[in-house]
Write a structure and sequence with these properties.
- The protein starts with a strand and ends with a strand.
- The longest helix is centred in the middle third of the chain and has 9 residues.
- It has 349 residues and is mainly beta.
- The protein contains 2 helices and 25 strands.
- The protein has 3 domains: 95 residues, no CATH class; 77 residues; 110 residues, mini-chromosome maintenance (MCM) complex, domain 2, CATH 2.60.320.
- The radius of gyration is 51 Å and the shape is rod-shaped.
């Protein structure tokens, strides 16, 4: 323990005021030793203990004043106390430092190197700052009342992968909504899907509501709209016709581009009889069209007629037509089941 020496040129008494600058280190300083002229002209000295407004010994002033700060004391010669005051406000030490029972803090309140800082700013209101360990990328976490909203955010330094600057994590807004990062949610829609998307952990029940604005699909696992589906998969179109109604149609291929279609519907007729039959043809599969008994124009009765065909992207390949008279084996009759119309169908591949 040590004392600060103060020399004065007058006799001291109760209530005497002394001003001095704090030394380079105030550690372990507990009092003053004041040298002054006595009644007989001899230099004498008194030792004074540093005290607060209640006479409690301060202990040391290292935590009270920085180096080279002006300190003022009021001497009490009778009790040997030097009551420490702030040189600018004339307030006793008890009023310049926070009491155990509370008080008003007009500056930062710091606790340790990685502790808490509390202060007030013009545009953020009251602030509570928590400093993380030195090896972390954030300079600090802070809670403030920015724009009247309660905000929790980090101040990133230049080494952070996301870049330097303030990163708001959570904000309680004055309108009752909660903002998480850059996503704003009201209390009624907490847990809603973020507008930027995300991964669902359960089924979505639309409860009869309609989804709007779906784009055209690019993959098989994506939902489609009727506007996209109808013109591509459910519309049909005439791709070939035999309007002249040839009476003799042998084995041949009708070359026509069917790459946009999944299937075809072909209409057939007999050269010597009215009416027609139709048959589906699936692409890359062989099909057969048949017709039961009828009497042809030549007056002969035929038990059955048939013709094979197969469909590909490049057209339809037909076999010859066959007909069976009475119980005889079928023979080639190219007037039988002549194709006269081909419709392309989408969505049936």
């Amino acid at each position: 323990m040590s004392n600060i020496r103060v020399d004065v040129g007058y006799t001291i008494h109760d209530g005497s005021e002394l001003k001095f600058r704090s030394p380079a280190s105030c550690s372990a300083i507990t009092g003053l030793i004041v040298y002054y002229p006595g009644t007989n002209g001899n230099i004498t000295s008194n030792v004074f203990a540093l005290a607060d407004a209640h006479g409690n010994n301060v202990g040391d002033i290292d935590h009270l004043f920085a180096e080279n700060v002006v300190v003022k004391v009021i001497l009490d010669v009778t009790t040997g106390m030097a009551f420490v005051q702030n040189a600018d406000t004339n307030a006793y030490i008890e009023d310049t430092f926070l009491k155990k029972t509370g008080g008003t803090v007009n500056g930062e309140f710091k606790v340790g190197a990685n502790g808490v800082t509390i202060w007030e700013s013009t545009y953020e209101g009251g602030n509570l700052r928590l400093k993380p360990p030195a090896d972390k990328t954030a300079d600090y976490w802070e809670m403030d009342a920015y724009d009247g909203n309660l905000r929790f955010h980090t101040q990133k330094n230049a080494t952070d992968p996301d870049g330097a600057g303030s990163k708001t994590a959570l904000k309680l807004n004055t309108d009752g909504s909660i903002s998480v990062g850059n996503i704003s949610k009201t209390l009624s829609n907490l847990g809603a899907l973020p507008t930027a998307g995300g991964t669902m952990n359960g089924a979505i029940n639309m409860n009869g509501k309609i989804i709007h604005g779906l784009p055209d699909v690019t993959g098989k696992d994506q939902p489609v709209t009727l506007n996209y589906l109808e013109p591509r998969y459910w519309n049909s179109g005439q791709v070939w016709n035999n309007a002249a109604g040839s009476s003799n149609f042998g084995a041949q291929k009708v070359s026509v581009n069917l790459s946009a279609y999944g299937a075809v519907l072909i209409f057939f007729k007999h050269a010597h009889e009215t009416g027609f039959v139709s048959e589906f043809g699936i692409k890359n599969q062989k099909s057969v069209v048949t017709r039961g008994g009828f009497t042809a124009k030549d007056g002969k009765y035929y038990i059955a007629t048939y013709r094979d065909f197969s469909v590909s992207d490049s057209g339809v390949t037909f076999s010859a037509g066959f007909a069976s008279q009475n119980n005889a084996d079928a023979t080639e009759q190219n007037w039988a089941l002549i194709p006269f119309l081909i419709l392309g169908l989408r969505g049936l591949s």
